[in-house]
Amino acid sequence: MSAVGEAIRERFPVFRDKVYVNSCSQGALSDAVRAAYGEYLAGWDAHGAEWEHWVERSEAARAAFANLLGVRPDDVAIQTSVSAAVSALVSALRFDGIRNRIVISEHEFPTIGQIAHAQELRGAEVVHVASEPEAYAAAVDERTGLVCATFVSYRTGAVHDVEAIYGIARKHGALMLVDGYQGVGALPLRVAEAGDVVVGGTVKYLLASAGLAFLACRPGLVTELLPTQTGWFADENVFDMQIERYRPHASARRFDAGTPPVPNIYAGLAGVDLIAEVGVPQIQAHVRALVAQLCTGLDELGASVAAPPGGPLVCIRSTDAPALVAAFARDGIVASERDSNLRVSLHLYNTEDDVDAVLAAAARQRELLA
Ligand SMILES: Cc1ncc(COP(=O)(O)O)c(C=O)c1O
């Protein structure tokens, strides 16, 4: 039997009472992630400071992220949020030469735009473009230091052609950053094809909780970069306890920072393991069928979507998205909204019945559909 849909649903207690279609905001809690938190607390109780084991768990998380993204563990940094990871990355870039430009799309998550504009204080110039490769092609040139693209738009659900954008960045010798947060876990994403650096975290399709993120680099990249946002876990040897000099680790660990977020690592590992056990291709196929069912039903209702969805997120246009979310909540359906759109996101645990419930609720709220 397939390990998706009904076969896995009982491991996520939220489905006892709710139709949960909000993985774009927070993945549902599984028995495995709950148990992982229990394991962390039990170990702390039983052994006191389990530092060696905790650091080993952190390395296991690094390896799990690497496996997911098709790189080696040495090419992955552990961070506490995408914001912290991207800030560490840009701290390694210089904007005082000819490559002062950061090109970002209109679909970046706010944190990317805000971090980019913060670099204006260091001499950067931020260029905003549409999210299609052609728009990047018109803006990226030899003055570009960093190209930022988002894999799946948190606002529309559109899947962007990061491979084509990476080709443009490479052609002009610019570094390419991909924000994979809204896709990793539900869609395949491999660093080699997507960009020089891919960031994401565990809160959404990786089924864990806040406080754990990754920065995955293409092999060979890190030795070219010297982050000034750093910490002792980024040192060549954390156990040296030296204060004489800045001595970044030879691997992507140079983008780590301080004490690893141990409880979040326990949870994150459990979430990523669950995804790896089922397999991203199988999740992608399951989600694709549900999204097709949803889009057909929406079409029949005369509803429109913000973008043709190529991934797990469907954004339904609404005349009053907060009211639509509230109406869905009254029907026991957990969804979210952004930009006048109702966001319905589907994952391995959703079923055709969930989609039918969403369509029935949308039909009842027809006057709120745009
Ligand atoms: C696409 C995307 N990028 C970044 C973030 C924010 O990440 P963090 O809070 O870990 O900095 C989110 C959170 O919703 C997101 O959807």
Walkthrough of the structure:
The chain is α/β, with parallel strands linked by helices. Helices cover 38% and strands 14% of the residues. The chain has helices at 6-9, 31-47, 51-69, 82-90, 110-118, 133-139, 162-171, 191-194, 262-278, 280-301, 321-330, 352-364, and strands at residues 19-20, 76-79, 101-105, 125-129, 144-150, 175-179, 197-201, 213-217, 313-317, 333-334, 336-338, 341-345. The strands form 3 sheets. A 7-stranded mixed sheet has the order 2-8-7-6-5-3-4, with helices on both faces. The chain has a 3-stranded antiparallel sheet with strand order 9-12-11. Strands 1-10 form a two-stranded parallel sheet. Strand 11 and strand 12 (341-345) form a beta hairpin. Helix 4 packs parallel to helix 5, helix 6 runs parallel beside helix 7 (162-171) and helix 10 (280-301) runs parallel beside helix 12. The mean pLDDT is 97. Bound molecules: pyridoxal-5'-phosphate. Pyridoxal-5'-phosphate (PLP) binds next to helix 4. Pyridoxal-5'-phosphate binds next to helix 4.
List the helices and strands and how they pair.
Elements: H1 6-9, E1 19-20, H2 31-47, H3 51-69, E2 76-79, H4 82-90, E3 101-105, H5 110-118, E4 125-129, H6 133-139, E5 144-150, H7 162-171, E6 175-179, H8 191-194, E7 197-201, E8 213-217, H9 262-278, H10 280-301, E9 313-317, H11 321-330, E10 333-334, E11 336-338, E12 341-345, H12 352-364
Parallel strand pairs: 1-10, 3-4, 3-5, 5-6, 6-7
Antiparallel strand pairs: 2-8, 7-8, 9-12, 11-12
Helix pairs in contact: 2-9, 3-9, 4-5, 6-7, 10-12
Bound molecules: pyridoxal-5'-phosphate (PLP).
Pyridoxal-5'-phosphate is lined by residues 81-83, 109, 111, 150, 154, 179, 181-182, 201, 213.
